[in-house]
Structure prediction request, 246 residues.
Amino acid sequence: MAGRLAGKKALVTAAAQGIGEATARAFAAEGAEVVATDLNVEGLRPLEGTPGLVTRKLDVTQSGEVGALAAEVGAVGVLFNCAGFVHQGTILDCGEDDWDFTMDVNVKGMYRLIRAFLPAMIEAGGGSIVNMSSIASSLRGVPNRFAYTTSKGAVLGLTKAVAADFVGQGIRCNAICPGTVDTPSLEERMQAAGDVEKARAAFVARQPMGRLGRPEEIAALAVYRASDESAFVSGTAVSIAGGWSI
Ligand code: NAD
Prediction:
């Protein structure tokens, strides 16, 4: 199949919903051979049958699962580390368990995936790693997102470090920093707020463009980062945030 990712194998984490799902679909539509993963196996079902796409269970906090999948899948040309968790609250609301869980999913998950998949990627001559960060950390301090913002800042350091170490071996590593995107977990956060319409208005107001982002818009950026069109781009963190970064 022709497309900007034709001939590439791509692994996507957190593909059962939201940005990960949209990106897995976009990668497949661009001709990639996609391994779409998530800890929520039921959530992956709607993706099954998509041409060029297979699904696998993967919890990014489980080193054994990550290692087994790397052994099964072999070399990928694209690794999209999308899995992330939003802890709400300030540092005073963040117990050690909250801190540990957030860092385990949002940062150590990427460490595990990259450690497992990078050797074969290098062996195959190179590839593109795309890590999910956020406007929270890269450009903004966001109230009540202490652990989340800290973890997404760590993703930026991780991204730069990997980019620096392997730039001579054909490896590119970039971060994506979205503003507020209309995904199931955002919907849950709005529902949990009590006054859903007030919560929605507050999330919308963060973007000067006056709307939420769509998962497909973030997926389009991930396709560019994954494809050879961005072959001269590494170590960057690009915002996609409806003007929040102006
Ligand atoms: P979401 O929060 O709606 O869904 C998250 C998915 O991750 C779910 O399918 C869930 O099952 C999966 N997941 C959770 N823990 C996992 C684990 N340990 N291993 C594997 N999968 C796991 O998705 P979203 O809102 O599209 O967010 C995706 C990524 O984008 C996250 O890293 C998030 O921090 C980041 N992000 C989101 C927004 C936003 O406004 N939605 C903004 C900036 C960054």
Notes: The mean pLDDT is 97. Strands lie at 9-12, 33-38, 53-57, 78-81, 127-132, 171-178, 237-240. The two ends are 39 Å apart (CA to CA).
